[in-house]
Write the structure tokens for this entry.
Amino acid sequence: MKAARIFAALLATAALPAIAAPVAFTGGTVMTGAGATIENATVVVDNGRIVAVGSGVAVPTGAQTIDATGKFVTPGLVVGMSDLGIDEVGGVREANDTRAAKSPFSASLDVVPALNGRETGIAVARAGGVTRAVVAPEASRDIFAGQGALIRLSSGPDILTRGKAFQLVELGENGAEAAGGSRTASFAAFRNALDEAREYAAHRGRETGNHENLYQRADTAALVAVVEGQQPLVVHVERASDILAVLALRTDFPKLHLILLGAREGWTIADRIAAAHVPVITSAIDDLPDAFETIASTKSNVGRLAAAGVLVGLGTSGGESTNQPRNVTQFAGNLVAQGRLPGGVGLTRDQAISVITRNPAEIFGMADTGVIAPGKRADLVVWDGDPLELQSAPVAVLIDGVAQPITSRQTELRDRYLHLQHDALPLAYRP
Amino acid sequence: MRRLFLFALLGVAACATDQHPKTAGNKPAGPAEIVAIPADPYPSTYHPYPGVTTVIRGATVYDGAGRKFAPGMVRLENGKVAEVGASVAIPAGATVIEAAGKFVTPGIIDIHSHLGDYPSPGVQANSDGNEATRPNTADVWAEHSIWPQDPGFTRALSGGVTTFHILPGSANLFGGRGVTVKNVLGRTAQDMKFPGAKPSLKMACGENPKRVYGSRNISPQTRMGNIAVDRQAWSDAVIYKRKWDDYTRKAKAGTAKPVDAPKRELVNDTLMGVLNGDILVQNHCYRADEMANVIAMSKEFGYHVSAFHHAVESYKIADLLRKENICSAMWADWWGFKMESYDGIRENIALVHNAGACAIVHSDDPNGIQRLNQEAAKAIAAGRRAGIVIAPEVAFEWLSLNPAKGLGIDKQTGSLEPGKMADVVLWNGDPFSVYSRPVDVWIDGALMYDAADPNRRPRTDFELGQPGSGDVK
């Protein structure tokens, strides 16, 4: 703990925003996120960007040097799906903006005004090394959940990096239920919604004269960017047949910019997904047939998809229980373990880093983060051990070159209750 | 046989002092026939599968009771742990497993599972985990909901879980009876029941009961309502017990006839079982202040809480929990999914342990149960960063011996000590590393899982003929 604090204190004085002098992290093991591990490497950060990385990199004159010997350096973690910033307490309705079951709107719902940079979960995730995240609303009444955002987990209220970053639609069991009871209904609803959006676009948003539209005007307007391929469409489906049905939608809607979410049975048709050049955001650990759409679940899914050439990133289902954003390193590590079992297909350690850094960043068009390479944003995590290991933790987190706090409400609770001996005053008087 | 059938029909068994109706049936009925509540009307039909004498050599051994042998050896014989240490005898004909670089531990025990009751797939037709129709359903038994074909059992096995406790859900104040099972698939739930393990009574504090019933305008609607309804139930149970004790005393003295026996009340059967010490209380309770209320209530009515489950705030009263000898069953880092879990911290388990109280890692989750070792690893690390250094061989108690204590089966299993059930896991690396997985799992000395042998990886009926059946999960 002490070492971590000293390290953090060093950083707090060293890495300042923008005009500060360059900072060089020396001697650490750098896992670049792009598939390489470099021993005894130097990473130079300047003006919020990475300017050099490698084993033979010279520390620029005037640069502050931070000795990272014995430590690991990775890109900041990028969580490919989450509810960070819109869910303070899952079970407290007033503090949870993930769902809007009573709203008349669907596709037009936009998480941006709901984002709260001071949500305690953001500091918790940041202390786990998460620097960027994809935030999505949850569908409830309609197949369309609405529009998600990309955030950075920097300290302070301003966390938005891109709003209206994608639309989310449910076309598996959830979608069938929301659409009226079956997949026939959800796919019909989907096609109708996109047809209405096309018609709306054709009339440039003016009255079409068609008063039988099923969708609200705002929802239809929101779907124009989807049907025109300007906004990615994240489709939650799990069953292999559902994945194929989604890929087939491009026959009628050729511009759709598809991203599959879930795809637990994707491995059974991995070559088809790869051929369609559709990336996948999924979970690493789901291996139960917990629904009829997830019968073929296995922890080999990610490994097999990757082996087939599918670009895969890890996301979380959100929430604060089994599938927390701060635990993506654990999930990725489990994929390495899977590859070490007879018959299992997993990832190498470098690949495991990529599915929680570069890949989700690339899938959501954040090409300037998720990789330690010159020119990229200086989103970095320094770890006290192998970043995939359960007992490792960040000792420093940088976002855009700025050292971030790695304390949270949880560390304050811990410090207050470390000792239970009676003091002169109640515990509530402790810091 | 005929006698037993008759007793079963009447819901009574001869001979009050005998807790085992099976033996009761074999005794000739004396003149003072005494009606008794059968202690075990749905008995275990579990039987261990055959094993061979096995010696594991060269591995690092965590015995689950705080000891480490590196390298060490373990011998399994006749279904039991025969010997553990730096060196053990190798009988002629024993199977010897060379395990250098691997780790041996006791089988993991999960004190909080809903496998079988909330099975996969999670369709309404199979959702049998919570009889949420009344605040007090102490009359229902989780074992009567178990679907033996839940694929979740096989996933837990591949995570090294050899024993677990299946509890009813937490909507009710009194959710019903929980059951301890061995993770050996059977055709019936009784085939899985851990022989001789006491049942539990699942209780719940906090948000769930008050929300579920309060929203129906039924008491409880508040936390004070929770305690009030609890206390009335215990008070009624005390009277019930008094009636049965009085009847039994008189019947033994020959002054009461079978017809004088009190009417069976299944809710109170369970609560009386707790008051008699035959049923252990497993109490879902997140907040420290509510645990304290429950402790006071348990003293008011004369019972003991075996473990608080989901005890995310145990760290706030770890000293009290140690004093009261109550285990805490905890997640490593769940928090904030509901108001009463808002103060969850990763140091909880280490802080409870450090206070000298009984710490248990539990899952409550069909995914989490597969990685309880990983949860413990996170807790070790959080503790270390807070200045609490816990050796891995000591921390393994959270996964085996302590849950065994919480379930009252620590004399039979939970550690690698001679004479105990040979419930053993061989890992391909340090169980507290993310890269490690079980490669072999023995239950009662029988090899029930082998990662390298598809014929030693069980598949439930449900998965047969389905895509991915038999795959490495």
Chain A touches chain B through 59 residues (CB under 8 Å). The two ends of chain A are 18 Å apart (CA to CA).
